[in-house]
Design brief:
27% strand; globular; binds citrulline
Length: 255
Protein backbone atom coordinates (compact mmCIF):
# COMPACT_ATOMS: atom_id res chain seq x y z
CA UNK A 1 0.00 0.00 0.00
CA UNK A 2 1.14 3.49 -0.91
CA UNK A 3 0.12 6.76 0.63
CA UNK A 4 -1.15 8.87 -2.29
CA UNK A 5 -1.45 12.68 -2.14
CA UNK A 6 -3.44 14.41 -4.85
CA UNK A 7 -2.55 18.07 -5.27
CA UNK A 8 -3.09 20.69 -7.93
CA UNK A 9 -0.81 23.50 -9.04
CA UNK A 10 -1.77 27.01 -7.99
CA UNK A 11 -4.11 28.72 -10.45
CA UNK A 12 -2.77 31.86 -12.14
CA UNK A 13 -6.12 33.43 -11.20
CA UNK A 14 -5.74 32.76 -7.44
CA UNK A 15 -6.07 36.49 -6.75
CA UNK A 16 -9.76 36.14 -7.72
CA UNK A 17 -10.32 33.50 -5.02
CA UNK A 18 -13.39 33.37 -2.81
CA UNK A 19 -13.00 35.13 0.54
CA UNK A 20 -15.44 34.96 3.44
CA UNK A 21 -13.80 36.03 6.69
CA UNK A 22 -10.63 37.61 5.29
CA UNK A 23 -10.16 40.88 3.45
CA UNK A 24 -8.36 40.71 0.14
CA UNK A 25 -4.61 41.01 0.25
CA UNK A 26 -2.53 40.67 -2.93
CA UNK A 27 -1.14 37.16 -3.39
CA UNK A 28 2.35 36.93 -4.87
CA UNK A 29 1.77 34.21 -7.50
CA UNK A 30 5.40 33.09 -7.97
CA UNK A 31 5.83 32.89 -4.20
CA UNK A 32 2.54 31.03 -3.80
CA UNK A 33 3.73 28.50 -6.39
CA UNK A 34 7.08 28.13 -4.67
CA UNK A 35 5.43 27.58 -1.28
CA UNK A 36 3.08 25.05 -2.83
CA UNK A 37 6.02 23.13 -4.31
CA UNK A 38 7.70 23.09 -0.90
CA UNK A 39 4.47 21.78 0.61
CA UNK A 40 4.49 18.98 -1.98
CA UNK A 41 8.16 18.24 -1.21
CA UNK A 42 7.22 17.98 2.44
CA UNK A 43 4.46 15.45 1.66
CA UNK A 44 6.93 13.46 -0.41
CA UNK A 45 9.47 13.42 2.42
CA UNK A 46 6.76 12.07 4.67
CA UNK A 47 6.29 9.14 2.32
CA UNK A 48 3.47 10.29 0.05
CA UNK A 49 3.46 9.62 -3.67
CA UNK A 50 2.35 13.06 -4.90
CA UNK A 51 0.06 13.18 -7.94
CA UNK A 52 -0.05 16.81 -9.08
CA UNK A 53 -2.84 17.92 -11.37
CA UNK A 54 -2.12 20.76 -13.82
CA UNK A 55 -3.29 24.21 -12.80
CA UNK A 56 -6.76 25.37 -13.83
CA UNK A 57 -6.56 28.81 -15.30
CA UNK A 58 -10.20 29.75 -14.69
CA UNK A 59 -10.69 28.14 -11.27
CA UNK A 60 -9.03 30.49 -8.76
CA UNK A 61 -9.51 28.23 -5.72
CA UNK A 62 -8.65 24.95 -7.40
CA UNK A 63 -5.38 24.48 -5.49
CA UNK A 64 -7.58 23.66 -2.47
CA UNK A 65 -8.33 20.12 -3.62
CA UNK A 66 -9.48 19.00 -0.19
CA UNK A 67 -12.85 20.66 -0.71
CA UNK A 68 -13.72 18.65 -3.83
CA UNK A 69 -13.75 15.16 -2.30
CA UNK A 70 -13.80 13.00 0.79
CA UNK A 71 -11.66 9.92 0.38
CA UNK A 72 -12.34 7.08 2.80
CA UNK A 73 -10.69 3.67 2.85
CA UNK A 74 -13.53 2.10 0.92
CA UNK A 75 -15.03 4.84 -1.20
CA UNK A 76 -14.66 8.37 -2.58
CA UNK A 77 -17.37 11.01 -2.27
CA UNK A 78 -17.25 13.87 -4.76
CA UNK A 79 -18.63 16.96 -3.09
CA UNK A 80 -20.83 19.75 -4.33
CA UNK A 81 -19.01 22.86 -3.08
CA UNK A 82 -21.03 25.52 -1.31
CA UNK A 83 -19.98 28.32 -3.65
CA UNK A 84 -20.91 28.15 -7.30
CA UNK A 85 -17.48 29.29 -8.56
CA UNK A 86 -15.88 26.13 -7.13
CA UNK A 87 -18.31 23.51 -8.48
CA UNK A 88 -16.37 22.83 -11.73
CA UNK A 89 -13.30 21.86 -9.67
CA UNK A 90 -14.79 18.46 -8.90
CA UNK A 91 -14.70 17.16 -12.49
CA UNK A 92 -10.95 16.66 -12.66
CA UNK A 93 -10.79 15.48 -9.04
CA UNK A 94 -13.30 12.73 -9.83
CA UNK A 95 -11.08 11.73 -12.76
CA UNK A 96 -8.03 11.61 -10.51
CA UNK A 97 -9.77 9.45 -7.89
CA UNK A 98 -11.41 7.02 -10.27
CA UNK A 99 -8.39 4.67 -10.51
CA UNK A 100 -8.39 4.32 -6.72
CA UNK A 101 -11.96 4.34 -5.41
CA UNK A 102 -15.55 3.69 -6.26
CA UNK A 103 -17.05 7.19 -6.55
CA UNK A 104 -20.33 8.63 -5.27
CA UNK A 105 -21.62 12.19 -5.65
CA UNK A 106 -23.31 14.76 -3.44
CA UNK A 107 -26.29 16.02 -5.44
CA UNK A 108 -28.44 19.19 -5.39
CA UNK A 109 -29.80 20.63 -3.19
CA UNK A 110 -26.99 19.29 -1.04
CA UNK A 111 -23.77 21.24 -0.65
CA UNK A 112 -20.63 20.00 1.05
CA UNK A 113 -17.01 21.19 1.19
CA UNK A 114 -14.34 18.63 2.10
CA UNK A 115 -12.87 21.22 4.48
CA UNK A 116 -15.90 20.59 6.67
CA UNK A 117 -15.20 16.89 7.11
CA UNK A 118 -12.94 15.74 9.94
CA UNK A 119 -12.46 11.98 10.00
CA UNK A 120 -11.52 10.39 13.30
CA UNK A 121 -11.58 6.63 12.83
CA UNK A 122 -15.07 5.62 11.80
CA UNK A 123 -16.61 8.95 12.78
CA UNK A 124 -16.99 11.79 10.30
CA UNK A 125 -17.52 15.12 12.04
CA UNK A 126 -19.09 17.48 9.51
CA UNK A 127 -19.30 21.23 9.93
CA UNK A 128 -22.65 22.84 9.48
CA UNK A 129 -20.92 25.86 7.98
CA UNK A 130 -21.73 28.50 5.42
CA UNK A 131 -20.59 25.98 2.79
CA UNK A 132 -22.10 22.64 3.84
CA UNK A 133 -25.84 22.38 4.33
CA UNK A 134 -28.09 19.86 6.08
CA UNK A 135 -29.03 18.17 2.80
CA UNK A 136 -25.37 17.64 1.94
CA UNK A 137 -24.58 16.29 5.39
CA UNK A 138 -27.59 13.93 5.25
CA UNK A 139 -26.53 12.62 1.82
CA UNK A 140 -23.03 12.00 3.09
CA UNK A 141 -24.39 10.11 6.10
CA UNK A 142 -26.48 7.88 3.86
CA UNK A 143 -23.62 7.21 1.44
CA UNK A 144 -21.09 6.20 4.10
CA UNK A 145 -23.39 4.29 6.46
CA UNK A 146 -23.03 1.00 4.53
CA UNK A 147 -19.26 1.21 5.16
CA UNK A 148 -19.74 1.57 8.90
CA UNK A 149 -19.19 5.33 9.28
CA UNK A 150 -21.11 7.52 11.63
CA UNK A 151 -21.69 11.15 10.62
CA UNK A 152 -21.92 13.79 13.36
CA UNK A 153 -23.05 17.29 12.35
CA UNK A 154 -21.10 20.01 14.18
CA UNK A 155 -22.00 23.68 14.48
CA UNK A 156 -19.21 26.09 13.58
CA UNK A 157 -19.42 29.82 14.05
CA UNK A 158 -17.19 32.60 12.77
CA UNK A 159 -14.92 30.58 10.48
CA UNK A 160 -15.01 29.12 6.98
CA UNK A 161 -14.92 25.36 7.58
CA UNK A 162 -14.93 22.88 10.45
CA UNK A 163 -11.23 22.25 9.79
CA UNK A 164 -10.51 25.98 10.22
CA UNK A 165 -11.66 25.40 13.81
CA UNK A 166 -10.37 21.92 14.60
CA UNK A 167 -8.01 19.28 13.22
CA UNK A 168 -6.26 16.16 14.51
CA UNK A 169 -2.62 16.43 15.62
CA UNK A 170 -2.09 12.96 17.11
CA UNK A 171 -4.00 9.69 17.39
CA UNK A 172 -6.27 10.98 20.18
CA UNK A 173 -5.43 14.70 20.27
CA UNK A 174 -7.12 17.60 18.49
CA UNK A 175 -5.99 21.18 17.97
CA UNK A 176 -8.88 23.61 18.20
CA UNK A 177 -10.17 27.13 18.57
CA UNK A 178 -13.01 26.92 21.07
CA UNK A 179 -14.39 30.31 19.94
CA UNK A 180 -15.35 28.60 16.67
CA UNK A 181 -16.35 25.08 17.77
CA UNK A 182 -17.52 23.52 21.01
CA UNK A 183 -14.88 21.06 22.29
CA UNK A 184 -17.57 18.98 24.07
CA UNK A 185 -18.59 17.60 20.68
CA UNK A 186 -15.40 15.52 20.55
CA UNK A 187 -15.96 13.33 23.56
CA UNK A 188 -13.13 11.01 24.52
CA UNK A 189 -10.49 13.00 22.68
CA UNK A 190 -7.90 15.24 24.25
CA UNK A 191 -7.33 18.68 22.79
CA UNK A 192 -4.90 21.58 22.63
CA UNK A 193 -6.21 25.15 22.36
CA UNK A 194 -4.73 27.48 19.76
CA UNK A 195 -2.88 30.43 21.25
CA UNK A 196 -5.44 33.23 21.74
CA UNK A 197 -3.58 35.66 19.47
CA UNK A 198 -3.57 33.07 16.64
CA UNK A 199 -7.26 32.28 16.01
CA UNK A 200 -6.56 30.79 12.56
CA UNK A 201 -3.99 28.35 13.91
CA UNK A 202 -6.16 25.23 14.27
CA UNK A 203 -5.49 23.81 10.81
CA UNK A 204 -2.81 21.09 10.93
CA UNK A 205 -2.24 18.09 8.69
CA UNK A 206 -1.47 14.81 10.45
CA UNK A 207 0.40 12.27 8.32
CA UNK A 208 1.17 9.11 10.28
CA UNK A 209 3.02 10.41 13.37
CA UNK A 210 3.95 13.83 11.96
CA UNK A 211 1.98 17.06 11.98
CA UNK A 212 2.53 19.36 9.00
CA UNK A 213 2.01 22.85 10.30
CA UNK A 214 2.18 26.42 9.02
CA UNK A 215 5.09 28.67 10.06
CA UNK A 216 2.55 31.50 10.41
CA UNK A 217 1.55 30.43 13.95
CA UNK A 218 4.71 30.20 16.10
CA UNK A 219 2.94 30.50 19.45
CA UNK A 220 0.59 27.63 18.78
CA UNK A 221 3.50 25.68 17.23
CA UNK A 222 5.22 26.04 20.59
CA UNK A 223 2.18 24.65 22.38
CA UNK A 224 2.15 21.63 20.08
CA UNK A 225 5.81 20.87 20.72
CA UNK A 226 5.40 21.27 24.49
CA UNK A 227 2.70 18.58 24.29
CA UNK A 228 5.10 16.26 22.50
CA UNK A 229 3.56 16.61 19.03
CA UNK A 230 6.09 16.01 16.25
CA UNK A 231 5.76 19.06 13.98
CA UNK A 232 7.19 19.77 10.54
CA UNK A 233 6.75 23.42 9.54
CA UNK A 234 5.95 24.71 6.05
CA UNK A 235 5.50 28.30 4.94
CA UNK A 236 2.13 28.66 3.18
CA UNK A 237 1.62 32.35 3.97
CA UNK A 238 0.48 33.22 0.41
CA UNK A 239 -2.14 30.44 0.42
CA UNK A 240 -3.37 31.60 3.83
CA UNK A 241 -4.26 34.94 2.16
CA UNK A 242 -6.68 32.90 0.01
CA UNK A 243 -8.25 31.53 3.22
CA UNK A 244 -6.57 28.16 2.74
CA UNK A 245 -4.07 26.30 4.88
CA UNK A 246 -2.27 22.97 5.15
CA UNK A 247 -5.10 20.43 5.05
CA UNK A 248 -6.84 21.97 2.07
CA UNK A 249 -3.99 21.60 -0.43
CA UNK A 250 -4.10 17.80 -0.62
CA UNK A 251 -6.25 14.70 -0.65
CA UNK A 252 -4.29 11.97 1.12
CA UNK A 253 -5.27 8.30 1.17
CA UNK A 254 -3.89 4.78 0.99
CA UNK A 255 -4.03 2.83 -2.24
C1 LIG B 1 -12.66 29.30 -0.46
O1 LIG B 1 -13.18 30.29 0.03
O2 LIG B 1 -13.32 28.33 -0.81
C2 LIG B 1 -11.17 29.30 -0.68
N1 LIG B 1 -10.73 30.64 -0.91
C3 LIG B 1 -10.44 28.70 0.50
C4 LIG B 1 -10.74 27.25 0.70
C5 LIG B 1 -9.96 26.63 1.80
N2 LIG B 1 -10.30 25.28 1.96
C6 LIG B 1 -10.13 24.58 3.06
O3 LIG B 1 -9.70 25.11 4.05
N3 LIG B 1 -10.51 23.33 3.04
Amino acid sequence: MMQIAITRQVSPSINQCELTYLTRDAIDLPLAKQQHRQYEDCLEKLGCEVHTLPSEENLPDSVFVEDAAIVLGEVGIITRPGVESRRPEVVSIAGALLPFREIFYIKPPGTLDGGDVLQIGKTLYVGNSGRSNNAGIAQLAELVMPFGYNVVGVDVYGCLHLKSAVTQVAHDVLLLNRAWVNPDVFMGLDYIDVHPVEPHAANALLIDQTTVYSTTYPLTHDRLEKKGIHVVAVDVSELIKAEGAVTCCSLIFLA
